[in-house]
């Protein structure tokens, strides 16, 4: 019995050691680069990667991934917008391979006024960005997670993408075309305007007024105690959060 227990313990030790070695090797294979860039207040993500944004006193971009992927990755600023994209868009399908490690991009900026995601990329703001206005847009199956404190927030989703909101604002407008979803229970706004075309869904937290227009089977769920003005064409619905 003791011999069996010792063999089992030894086997578990070997497996644990192998897993630790594999994890270390996988991490060691990732390349990291600090990219030189100019000032920006907007971000445009146009390839499948994970972007983390933090608030800081300077503008910086750090990328992490396989060397061959980073070689094809462009990070440049044009007209105040940080573009994160593939060098050769014609070879989009061949970008990366099944055994490629996910590309991660770490961004620091003092201010942020607009974010757009095209494709299946993901962008997450780790800090709360304040300002007069913020514009968010997702086209495709990607996602944006944003924490913000602004007077005016505009969100647009085309496709099956998702926008997650936290924070507060005075006025919020959301437009959803397709099957996308906006998760906004954690974002408190005075007034909200929602337009849905298709089967999309919107969760909103409005204090004063909520106006919604739905064409199709879209759904609006709201919290707070706003006055509600809704127009529905199709099987869509506007309901208070259950």
Automatic annotation (TrEMBL):
<feature type="region of interest" description="Disordered">
    <location>
        <begin position="223"/>
        <end position="242"/>
    </location>
</feature>
<dbReference type="Pfam" id="PF10988">
    <property type="entry name" value="DUF2807"/>
</dbReference>
<dbReference type="InterPro" id="IPR021255">
    <property type="entry name" value="DUF2807"/>
</dbReference>
<feature type="domain" description="Putative auto-transporter adhesin head GIN">
    <location>
        <begin position="40"/>
        <end position="226"/>
    </location>
</feature>
<feature type="signal peptide">
    <location>
        <begin position="1"/>
        <end position="20"/>
    </location>
</feature>
<keyword id="KW-0732">Signal</keyword>
<protein>
    <recommendedName>
        <fullName>Putative auto-transporter adhesin head GIN domain-containing protein</fullName>
    </recommendedName>
</protein>
């Amino acid at each position: 019995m003791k011999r069996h227990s010792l063999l089992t313990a030894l086997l578990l030790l070997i497996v644990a050691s192998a897993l630790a070695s594999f994890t270390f090797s996988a991490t060691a294979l990732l390349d990291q680069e600090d990219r030189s860039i100019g000032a920006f207040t907007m971000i445009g993500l146009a390839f499948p990667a994970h972007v983390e944004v933090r608030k800081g006193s300077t503008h910086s971009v750090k990328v992490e991934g396989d060397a061959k992927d980073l070689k094809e990755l462009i990070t440049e600023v044009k007209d105040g917008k940080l573009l994160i994209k593939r060098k050769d868009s014609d070879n989009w399908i061949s970008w990366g391979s099944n055994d490629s490690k996910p590309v991660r991009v770490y961004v620091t900026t003092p201010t942020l006024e607009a974010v757009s995601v095209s494709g299946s990329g993901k962008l997450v703001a780790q800090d709360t960005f304040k300002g007069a206005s913020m514009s968010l847009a997702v086209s495709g199956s990607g996602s944006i997670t944003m924490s913000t404190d602004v007077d005016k927030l505009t969100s647009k989703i085309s496709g099956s993408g998702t926008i997650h909101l936290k924070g507060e604002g005075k006025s919020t407008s959301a437009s959803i075309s397709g099957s996308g979803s906006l998760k906004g229970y954690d974002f408190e706004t005075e007034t909200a305007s929602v337009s849905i075309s298709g089967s999309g869904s919107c969760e909103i937290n409005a204090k004063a007024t909520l106006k919604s227009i739905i064409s199709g089977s879209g759904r609006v769920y709201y919290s707070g105690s706003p006055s509600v003005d809704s127009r529905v064409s199709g099987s869509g619905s506007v309901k208070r959060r259950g």
